[in-house]
Structures are given as structure tokens and as C-alpha cells.
Amino acid sequence: MRIYAGDTEDDSKGKMHLINIFDGKKHSSFTERADAIEFLQTLRGHCHIWFCNLQYDINNIFGTENIHLLEIIYIGSRVIEARLIGTDVRFRDTLNHWKISVAEMGKRIGLKKLEAQGTDSKYNDLKYCRRDTRIVYKFVESMAKKYESINAELKATIGATSLKYFETNFYRHCNFTFIKKKEIEFMLKGYYGGRTEIFFNHPITGNIQYYDINSLYPFCCQKPMPIVHKKSYRFTKTPDFTKEGIVYARVKAPKKIEIPYLPYRSRDGKLLFPLGTFSGHWTYFEIREAKKLGYEIIKIHKAIEFFRGVGPVMGEFVETLYNKRLEAKKEKDELLSDAYKLIMNNLYGKFAQKNEKTKLMPYEGKNKLKRGDIIMNNIVLSKTLGDYPRQTNVIWSAYITAYGRHEIYERMVRVVRNHGLLIYCDTDSVIFEHRDNLFTDDNAIGKVKLEGKFKYAHFRLPKEYKLVSQDDTKIYKTKGVPKKSQAEFFENKKVSFERPYKLREVLRRNLSPKRILKLKPNFWDTIEKQSSKIYDKRIVFKDGSTKPITIGG
Q1: Cβ–Cβ under 8 Å, residues 246 and 153
Q2: Is residue 21 within 8 Å of 40, Cβ to Cβ?
């Protein structure tokens, strides 16, 4: 397998100016799409061409008129990989491994990103484009070598890399194809994400403390998991909660609980933590903990129960990687430290991988079309439901995230019982106001680390907030808004910013009955965004305090 890197330059109107491909020694540069495509079609053997933000660059190279030459695989809205049809040339995205910019890659490897020096604009600056390509190549090459040095393989995504490493070095039996579709889908209903809630919705001043749990999910991977073999589980209506599994039950929450414990997925997909009486799917672990808190089981509908015991199936994997990462940090090997961290953090999600993929591929009149398929310019955008991946074993992912919610729950309860004002939580973090330090700052895995102390906080919506540090540094977070516009959006509740159209969006919008715009991929348009939402995962009072929603009386 040969590594290449690529980069493109265009203007804000979606017009491509430069395409550059680098093989580690030679740059191949083009100003015309046809020439670049012809070059790519001459490549022989197994080639991986890496880009930073693949779906943007792939649009520049091929445009809508040549997109039929590709097969593009999506998971959700994310491009996983593209393949040039008739070749073994594959296009991959660094962002599926490392969530960093080209400039940050350059810092990691000691190769600075250039400032544009073109006479007209940066879009015509060949030197600038080539430097970006060289940075991507050197960074990917360096990381591939780091992976190889620890017996890991650079795959299309960090999740796939992590799974391969786990199988190769620790657990050689990640083939769970014996788990039936109906069993997987039952367990998926008991798989919830991290807990994100606002407990105080107005601006607040004081001694505001922000703590994170170190490596939360890797820490939870070390905990006991159900042993999964072909004959190690069964459906039952009489679960034994001393064992492990997932149960579908109706429960009643205690009226005077400090913080509700069990998650509930609303009809619109929101993850709530309500009071009242409601049904849901939960791990046996959660049920045991809920019963300690006063939850009452009203009715048991059905359960999948594992009866072969438990074991720390990922314990050695996490412990080894965590210790090796500490060694790498001591030796100031940032790239190796990153490799260990990424592999360690991205395993658990692979066990809950769904059987959904979306492909963009040529339409030749032979493809069997399904409801929801989109056809335009002889290409079809089609979502497929196939077999679940062989490693899909949802019970492990469900337990890991359940353990994670329990860990943050315990920290929140400690705040409340010590008469602190709980403000916000998000997966592995808790923010509160208290005159004293309630936690010890500790860098060990599973312990809490102080991220910062602040004198002002305003959490308006999940992942939309403002913090002011003791030295008056302002920190803004507004999901879905470019970083440079986040302060303006938070303060004014509206903002205008430029963003490019993605290929999938172009296909869908251009097929709209109104056909408002003849859109082009990478055409930068002005977006007007306003904040009109109110926080609705809890009941908010006039003074900013909140209480849980009650379901079912």
C-alpha cells in the first residue's frame, strides 16, 4: 500500500483553481480537473490518498459532472472513504483519525503552514498548496510509522484502527455474527450516549468549578462486562438481576430523588432523565443502581440475559495503552502519545456499529432502486441496510456508557449533598458553584481533573455556553457555529457566517420542488443563524433553577 496526500484550492464560488497530489518525493499539480483525473487513473496498485476534509477536496477534483467515477461511502453525513471506480485508488480523510487542522499537523511535525503569497489570491498560490499537501503527507506518514511501531495498522477510521489493534494484540475473537438481528436491535434500545443537562439556566457569578473525569470511557472499559459466547445468553421474562443483561421494563421513579438516574429517550430522540412512570431498556447494572435509589419496577416486558458470568474483557487493553501513553509523554513523544490515546478512546463505539451505510455511486439503469434513493446526473445516493458488522456486540457498548453515566452521576450527587449549586454536566464533565474545592485534582484514569475555575458562567443550551475566567478570559461554545463567530452568536443570539455546500446537500436541495438554487458543491453561501430555542430537557423557572420533567404522572 502506497501513501499519497492531496490538497485543492478554490474560490468562494465553487470554482476549482489548483489540485496537487504528493507521493513523498514528487508533486503532481493540475489546474484542470480532466488532467488530475487522468493522472489518478494511471496510478497502479493499492493507493491511499489522504486529504484534510475529504468531502471538500473530492468535490473540487471531480465536480458533479465527474462524480459518477467514484463510489463514496458515508456513515451518517460523514464520508468514510471514496474509491475511484476501476482502480484500487482510495481517498481517505485525516479528520476520521485526527480532529486537527493542517496548521496543527504542521506544528506536530515541525513543518509550518505557509501564508498565502499569490498575486491574485491564495487560490492561485502553488507553493502554498504544495506546502499543505506536504504537511498532510508527512503527518500521515509519521503517524502510520507510530502505529506500525506498536503493532497497529492505519485504517480508514480511528475506530477501525482501534478494533484491529484490539483483535491483533488482546482479543482474537471479535466475531459476533451469531448474535441475531432481533437481539442486536433489542440491545441497541438500551444503548444511550453521554448525559448532557443544564441544571441552572441563567447567568451566575461565584466560585465556579469545572472538572473532567480523566479518560472516562477507557476507564469504564476496564469494568466487568458480560461474557459473550454463542450459548451464553437468552431472552427471558423473569430476569435475574444478579447476572448481566438488558431489560425492557416499566419503572416508577422516587418523588424525592436528588437527581433522577435512569435515562429515557423521548419520541423526538432527546435523552431525558425524568421523574414519573415510564418504560425503557436498561442494563442490569443500571437497574440494580436505580433500585438502591428507590426506583420501583412496575412491570418487566422482556430481557436479554447473559448467564456465563463477567470479565474485564478490555481491561488489559486499556491498562497497557494508558501506561504506554504515560511513557510516551515522559519521553515527550507527542505523536506516539496521541496514537495510544486515540486507539484507547475509540474502541467501545465499534461494538455498537449499526448496519446502515449510504453510498454515492453511478446509476446505469440497472441498480435496483429503493424508496428514498436520490438520482441526479446519473448518480444515485442510496442508503443500505445490510448485515451488522461482525464485531457488533452492543451489550459491551451499552455497559460502558452506562458505567460512564454512573460515574458522572456520583460526582453530581456529591455536589448537591455538599450544598453546591449544580450548573451543568456533559458526558465526562461537571460544572458547579461552591465556595470550597469539593474534589481533589488528580490526573489518574477515572479520577477528576480540574479544567478551570471561573467567576461567571451562563449555560443557555447544551453545548452552548459562556465562561469567564478569573483573569477575564472569555470562553464561548456554540455548537454548529464557526469558532470565530461563536462569541457574536452567543451575545446577540444571531450571526451571519459563510459556509460551503456539501455534495449530499446539493443533491437533496437541487431536487427540491422549489429548486430555489442551482447549487454547486463548495459554493460558499451566507448563513443567517438565530437562536430561538429554549432549554426543554428540564423545567426552567424564572430564577434559572430547574427541575426534572415528569412523565406518566
Answers
A1: no
A2: yes
Provide the pLDDT for residue 115: 85
Q: Are 69 and 85 spatial neighbours (Cβ–Cβ below 8 Å)?
A: yes
Separation of alpha carbons 425 and 342, rounded Å: 23
> In the structure grid, which three cell numbers stand for residue 215, read together?
479518560
Crossing angle of helices 102-109 and 334-345, in 10° steps, is 130
pLDDT digits (tens, 9 = 90+) for 518-527: 667 788 888 8
Give pLDDT < 70 ranges for the chain: 117-123, 364-378, 507-519, 553
Q: Distance (Å, rounded) from C-alpha 50 to C-alpha 27?
A: 14
Element (H, E) at 388: none
**Amino acid in position 135:** I
Specify the residue for cell string 469494568. 223
Least Cα distance to 314 among 244, 241, 218 occurs for: 218
Q: What is the CA radius of gyration of the chain?
A: 25
Are 386 and 154 in contact, with CB atoms under 8 Å apart? no
**How many CB atoms within 10 Å of residue 56?**
18
Which candidate, 361, 366, 397, places its Cα nearest to that of 379?
A: 361
Gap between the Cα atoms of 247 and 303, Å rounded: 4
Rounded (5°) CA angle 340-342-346: 125
Cell, residue 68: 459518477
Between the two ends of the chain, the Cα-to-Cα distance in Å is 61
Report d(CA 269, CA 150) in Å as an integer: 40
Other CB atoms within a 10 A radius of the CB of residue 113 amount to: 15
C-alpha dist (Å) from residue 219 to 314, 343, 376: 10, 14, 47
What is the rounded distance in angstroms from the CA atom of residue 242 to the CA atom of residue 306? 10
Write out the DSSP string of 267-330.
Answer: TTS-EE--EEEEEEEEEHHHHHHHHHTT-EEEEEEEEEEE-S-EE-TTHHHHHHHHHHHHHHHH
Contacts of 303 by beta carbon, 8 Å cutoff, 6+ apart: 235, 236, 237, 239, 245, 246, 247, 248, 249
Quick one: CA torsion of 515, 67, 29, 146, rounded to 10 degrees?
110
Listed in sequence order, the residues at least 6 apart from 149 whose beta carbon sits closer than 8 Å to its beta carbon are: 336
548: cell is 426534572
Distance CA 54, CA 360 (A): 14
Residue 51, pLDDT score: 97
Q: In the prediction, which pLDDT does 23 show?
A: 96
**In the structure grid, which three cell numbers stand for residue 67, read together?**
462524480
Please, what are the domains in the chain?
A: 2-149+356-366 (3.30.420.10), 173-353+388-460+544-553 (no CATH), 463-534 (no CATH)
Q: Which three cell numbers stand for residue 102?
A: 493542517
Q: ∠ at Cα 407 (460, 263), nearest 5°? A: 60
CA dihedral 137, 140, 146, 150 (to 10 degrees): -140
**What φ, ψ does residue 360 adopt, rounded to 5°?**
-110, 120
**Lookup: cell for 187:** 440491545
The DSSP 8-state label assigned to residue 349 in this structure reads G
pLDDT at 516: 43
Q: In 3-state terms, the chain is what percent helix, strand and coil (to 5)?
A: 30, 30, 35
Contact assessment for residue 404 and residue 217, using Cβ atoms and an 8 Å cutoff: yes
